[in-house]
Design goal:
The complex is a heterodimer of chains A (about 230) and B (about 325). Chain A is mainly alpha-helical and about 230 residues long. Chain A has one domain. Chain A is built from ten helices and no strands. Chain B folds into three domains: about 220 residues, P-loop containing nucleotide triphosphate hydrolases (Rossmann fold); about 70 residues, MTH889-like domain (Alpha-Beta Plaits, 2-Layer Sandwich); about 35 residues. The chains are: A mainly alpha (about 230), B alpha/beta (about 325). At the A-B interface, helix 1 and helix 4 of A face helix 3 of B.
């Protein structure tokens, strides 16, 4: 697993992908930080984090698009699958490599918090809870996009699939206001990423939400392993 | 030791591998021969655990690939048909990654240097893989298979894309490696298998057609003693003379090869050597022998014969059946 993690990190930073991802993420985060707390002079970082929700959803597919698909295309999966490594190890190695880059992006918000701290008192608990929210959201969507990437050998298709899933997750939030029927509404609220995310960003630390994001992550990582396993037998 | 028993793999209704069994002893180099699409790569992919078998077992040094995949995989070095290279890495970065991936216990720097030296890629070790020529890529692929000195080597067409000098180098390397390890090597180049392998397994349409040493195969297939003779003399008279030798059962005119010299195929009865008899008889008439050679079957001939025989109508559609029958008829007429 660690060999794969190292190799994927090397892959990220020896290609433009990691730099582009980080640059775009920093630009968006910086923009929200400047137009929010800095410009209007408030110490709440909440708005910055809630704006980052959709940015993260759309940027993650860029990180994951080539992770699984490229192996299939270059046939490097033959090296991975014939080496003494478990399928879970392969998938986790790739997942954590993408998570490292993702966390490097998130780290900028900590810088923002310190900048605000110089000027005024910061609600550190809120910052922490927001960071956890972004982390959980990232993990869940990363797993979904990794799964999409494992289904194809074309990075572009993997990216488009990831964007589609981002759209879907965004739309789920607004869908619940349109649908009628209690059960349907409940289901949509239940799987809506934005609802669960926003409860974090207002500072509510709900165990159910934590479990939800972790479960989504675990399920899609598991499905990715199954895709690799299935390929052996088809 | 590798034991393959009743191996089957089907994709839908099509059998890519159909009931193949063979054993490779320690220190043996086994050649895997077959036309494109015969099932060589599929069999190798199953042995290395890349794809699962529909039925049958593969045991490597006592470990079954399905039950104990980790033990098997850690003993095998595999060079697939297309070397599994990350194009954006440098050769050293890549080999170092594979070293970690395989969890090799040897001293890293020394071992990587040794392997690079062995396949002669030391001078390109800092270059990015995508910029390498096909021959170098192939050698990097071979290097990754050799990392960790695995006891079993599975090489799928290892000399593809190399120039003749490199081919000879790699063949010699494989021969050397074969003294200490178990090697399976696939190829559709027959001379390669003949040069390197101690035993040959021929597969076609997913089925095993033959399993023997190259020489035995040649003998069993050619059976009779066949000679090609080039004789300086009038064609019809020489032909009549050759026919009159009692032990000769078949003479065939192969046409004019030099001025006033013609070539003949002479087939004697099994186990009979007619060369001396030929010399004396021709000398009586003053017709010199310009060339005399054994016309034993080459591996090519054996291969073609075996694959033609195996094209039994069972699996083939009707229109193809007609074609193969024609081919068979043509061959019989030829003989």
């Amino acid at each position: 697993m660690f060999a794969i993690l190292r190799r994927e990190l090397l892959g990220f930073f020896s290609s433009p992908i990691a730099y582009i991802y980080l640059a775009v993420f920093y630009i968006f985060a910086g923009y929200f930080f400047f137009t929010g707390p800095l410009y209007w002079g408030f110490t709440q970082l909440g708005p910055v984090f809630s704006n980052l929700f959709s940015v993260v959803l759309f940027l993650i597919p860029i990180l994951t698009m080539r992770l699984m698909s490229e192996d299939k295309k270059h046939r490097t999966d033959q090296a991975l699958l014939t080496a003494p490594v478990s399928l879970t190890g392969i998938v986790l190695g790739k997942f954590f490599a993408a998570m490292v880059v993702y966390l490097l992006g998130l780290a900028i918000t900590v810088v923002f918090a310190f900048v605000v701290a110089v000027l005024a008192a910061v609600n550190w608990l809120s910052v922490f809870s927001n960071l956890v929210a972004l982390l959980l959201l990232g993990m869940a969507h990363m797993a979904i996009c990794l799964f999409v990437s494992s289904l194809t050998e074309n990075q572009v298709i993997a990216a488009i699939g990831g964007f589609a899933s981002a759209f879907l997750l965004l739309m789920l939030g607004s869908l619940k206001t349109i649908v009628t029927g209690d059960i349907l509404q409940k289901i949509i609220t239940g799987i809506s990423f934005s609802d669960r995310y926003s409860s974090f960003s207002v500072g509510m630390f709900n165990l159910a939400d934590v479990v939800f994001f972790l479960s989504v992550c675990a399920i899609f990582l598991f499905l990715t392993v199954r895709v690799l396993e299935k390929r052996r037998w088809s | 030791m590798i034991e393959v028993k009743n191996l089957k793999k089907n994709y839908g209704n099509k059998y890519a591998v159909d009931d193949i069994s063979f054993t490779v002893q320690d220190g043996e180099i086994l050649g895997f021969l077959g036309p494109n699409g015969a099932g060589k790569s599929t069999t190798m992919n199953i042995i290395t655990g890349y794809v699962g078998a529909t039925d049958g077992t593969v045991t490597v040094n006592g470990h079954e690939i399905f039950d104990e995949p980790m033990q098997v995989k850690s003993q095998i070095g595999y060079l697939p048909e297309q070397p599994p290279l990350y194009p954006d890495m440098s050769v050293m970065e890549y080999l170092s990654f594979i070293y970690d991936l395989k969890k090799v216990k040897l001293k890293k720097a020394a071992h990587l240097d040794e392997i690079c030296e062995l396949v002669k890629i030391t001078d390109v070790q800092h270059r990015i893989i995508k910029n390498l020529s096909k021959g170098y890529k192939q050698r990097v692929g071979l290097a990754q298979a050799l990392l960790g000195n695995p006891g079993v080597l599975i090489l799928d067409e290892p000399t593809v894309g190399l120039d003749p000098k490199q081919i000879i180098e790699i063949r010699n390397l494989i021969k050397d490696l074969g003294h200490k390890r178990t090697v399976i090597l696939s190829s559709h180049i027959l001379s390669e298998v003949q040069a390197v392998c101690e035993r040959v397994v021929v597969i076609h349409n997913g089925r095993l057609l033959a399993d023997d040493t190259p020489d035995n195969l040649a003998q069993s297939m050619s059976g009779d003693h066949r000679l090609t003779v080039r004789i300086d003399g009038p064609q019809e008279d020489v032909y009549a003379l050759l026919k009159s030798i009692p032990q000769v059962c078949l003479v065939d005119k192969l046409g004019a090869k030099e001025t006033s010299a013609f070539e003949y195929l002479v087939e004697a009865e099994p186990g009979v050597d007619v060369r001396r008899e030929l010399f004396h008889r021709l000398a009586e008439h003053g017709w010199p022998i310009l060339a005399l050679g054994a016309s034993g079957l080459s591996l090519e001939d054996i291969f073609l014969q075996l694959t033609a025989q195996s094209d039994t109508p069972k699996e083939l559609s009707d229109d193809i059946q007609v074609d193969t029958n024609k081919d068979n008829d043509a061959e019989e007429e030829g003989e």
